[in-house]
Known about the structure:
Elements lengths: L2 H24 L7 H17 L14 H12 L6 H28 L2 H13 L1 H6 L6 H16 L5 H15 L7 H12 L7 H30 L8 H8 L12 H7 L1 H24 L1 H15 L5 H17 L13 H4 L1
Helix pairs in contact: 1-4, 1-5, 2-3, 3-4, 4-5, 4-7, 7-8, 7-9, 8-9, 8-10, 9-10, 9-15
Amino acid sequence: GRFDTIFPVVAIAVFFAVSLIVLLDYSLLGDMAVEADFFAEIAPAARQIAGGNLDIADYPFKGPVSAAALALLHALTGPWGLGLFRTGNLLSLLSAVAVLWFVYRVGLGLWGRRTAVAALVLTACNKLFFINAHKAGSDLLFMALVTAVMWLVLSGRTDTRSSLLVGVLAGLAFLTRYVGLVVPLWAVGAILLMRKKPEPWRIWLDASGWVALGTLAVVGPWLVLGLVQTGSLLTTDNLQNVVRNFYPEGGPSGGFESLTGILTHDPGHFFLHYFPHLAGWLGSDVGEVLGWPMAVLALLGLVAVLLPRGQRPRDLLVGWGLVYLVAIGVVFYLARFSLPLVPVYA
C-alpha cells in the first residue's frame, strides 16, 4: 500500500537528514579505530583503483569492494570537492539508508506492517548503527549487502534473475569482509530449505545453482588475480585476528598457516576457548549493542519466532544470525562486528 512506500521513505529521509547534520557538525577528523583502518587501507587502495592499479598487496585484510565503491562515489561527487574521507562518510551513510530500506521490506514480508515499522525504528535508533553510519569504513557497506541478500532470499524469489542477483550481492559481501563467505553459504542453504512439499526440487536446485554461479562470477576473478600475484587463491592477514583470540601469547613458534591449522593444532584448546568466547560475545552484545531492555525484548522475540510451526522464512532469518555469529565468533570481540546482527535483534 501507499503507507509501505511513503513511511519508510519519510523515516529514512529523517534519519539521513539528522545523520548528515551530525556528520557535518561533529565528524571533522577520523577516529583511532574504524577510520584508522580507512586511512591505512581503504583510502590508499581507492587511489590505486582510481589510477587503474589493482594489487593484492593493497588489501591485507579485505577484498577490493570497499575501495572500489569509495573510488566510484568519489568520482561521482568530484564536483563537490568532498575528498576521500568525506566521501567515505557519505558511503557509510548511503549504505545505512539501504540497510533501513531492506530491513523494512524484510519485516513487512515476514510479519507485516507493525513489525516492519518497529524493526526500522529500532535499527535506526540503535546506538551502534547510528554511530557507524557516520564513520568512513566498510562495516555499513557490508551490512547493506547482507540485508539485501536477506530480503531477496526470504522473499522466496526463485527466478533466474533474482537468484543471480543474490549470488552477485553475496560475492560482493565476501569481497567486502572475508567473513562474508558465510553469506553465499547461508543463501544457498536457505533457498533449499525454503522448499515446501510437494514443490519439485528442480526449482530450488536451479535457484541455488544460479546463486552459486553469481557468486563465482564476482569472486572468481579476485581469486585468480590472487593466485597469479601471490601463488595463493586467497591472501589475507585475518588469520592473525583468529590467533590473537585463541593464542594471545602468539601460539607455537612456527605460527599458523590456516584456520584449519589452528583447529587441528590443539582441538581441545580451540573448543574450550571458542564456546565460552561465543557466550561472552552474546553477553558483550547485550551491554554494547542492545542494552538490557532491548536484550529482553529480543529474547522474547526469539521465542515468539521459533515456537510456531510452519514459519520457515522467519526461522531462516534467525538462522542467518546464528551462522554469522558462529563465523565471527572465531575472532576477538569488537561491537561493530555485530552490526549484521542488529536487524535480527530488531
